[in-house]
Design brief:
The structure is a single chain. The protein has about 325 residues and is α/β, with parallel strands linked by helices. Helices cover about 35% and strands about 15% of the residues. It has 11 helices and 12 strands. The longest helix has 17 residues. The radius of gyration is 19 Å and the shape is globular. The protein starts with a strand and ends in a 14-residue tail after the last helix.
């Protein structure tokens, strides 16, 4: 894969990033090992995780992979802080103490002395300057090389980026991670523009519309082995099983048929090469799913097709170059 710079930084990331949200719950270690190995062999380097994923098990699996002898410099490890699951409840705590405690525990699980990208997982109640000061501390101590935000809306992203850029002593943000797909284009309203203005790379999570854009749920079907059929992920998929999504999924399937691709590949290419996207995060649960997505490495969507998908999913992308002859 041809690496891309993450925002204004010198950090180079693969255009596809390997997400780990399902690891430790739906994906066992034997499969995770194959996923990481196949991803790295294909030229990928960005692996995204968080303490909340599997209650820390996802980070432990990455640490276990490093312990098997995978060179640390082959991975760009991105993790988060400020959001954890305690006693079955989701807790957002972005105070300095909680942030640095999360990072300390992440490093222990990951079996490394630093993470390449450390992100605030969500906007919290703690003063923003306190949260960001924790990130400055981590960078100055060498515990994190770069910092970013996750799941911030436009004004939150701009506020955090402006604060960090105000003084040379602060660690400038380099990225913002948000949900972004043909079924979730809300990021274009403000987040993408804020990212462009502040030179942040956008990390797009759930580019396959939480799996719905693969077409597996067309016609109202809910496969027994799908996330929608599970007790712990059913709520996550349900919002995209509404009638509005059906027309978009059908359009993706139609484009895929004409291009000789799968719907998942078309949906992934659309988000991977969208304006301001540095990396599209994928969450395959099987090696076959990973291989299917890795086949997009040397593929692109023609501009008219990307624009047509824009139109059917909500309208033109203001930052996308207009196709010649349009």
């Amino acid at each position: 894969m041809q690496l891309r710079p993450l925002g204004h930084s010198g950090l180079q990331v693969s255009p596809l990033g390997l997400g780990s949200m399902s690891w430790g719950r739906d994906v066992e270690w034997s499969v995770v090992r194959q996923l990481i190995t196949g991803f790295l062999e294909a030229g990928g380097n960005l692996i995204d995780t968080a303490p909340a994923y599997g209650g820390g098990v996802a980070e432990q699996m990455i640490g276990k992979m490093l312990a098997t002898g995978v060179p640390r410099d082959e991975m760009v490890i991105a993790t988060k802080a400020g959001f954890v699951v305690r006693d079955g409840h989701r807790v957002i705590d972005t105070s300095r103490a909680a942030m640095l405690s999360d990072l300390e525990q992440s490093l222990h699980r990951l079996k490394t002395d630093h993470v390449d990208l450390w992100q605030v997982h969500a906007w919290g109640d703690a003063p923003l300057e306190e949260t960001l000061a924790a990130m400055d501390s981590a960078v100055s101590r060498g515990l994190a090389r770069y910092v970013g935000v996750s799941n911030f809306v436009g004004w939150q992203t701009a506020t955090a980026a402006t604060w960090q850029a105000a003084l040379p002593s602060r660690a400038r943000l380099v990225s913002t991670q948000v949900e972004y797909s043909l079924l979730a284009r809300r990021a274009e309203v403000e987040v993408v523009s804020a990212a462009r203005y502040h030179e942040l790379g956008l990390l797009a999570w759930s580019g396959l519309g939480r799996g719905v854009l693969t077409g597996k749920y067309r016609g109202g079907k809910v496969p027994r082995d799908s996330r929608a059929a599970s007790n712990h992920f059913g709520w996550f998929i349900e919002p995209y099983l509404q009638s509005r999504s059906a027309a978009i999924v059908d359009a993706v399937a139609h484009a895929a048929q004409g291009l000789g691709m799968t719907p998942a590949q078309v949906a992934l290419l659309w988000v991977r090469d969208a304006p301001q996207v540095a990396s599209a995060l994928i969450g395959p649960r099987t090696v076959d799913q990973l291989d299917e997505l890795l086949e997009t490495t040397h593929k692109t969507l023609l501009a008219p097709i990307a624009s047509a998908l824009d139109d059917v999913s909500g309208g033109a992308n203001a930052l996308r170059p207009t196709p010649q002859g349009a």
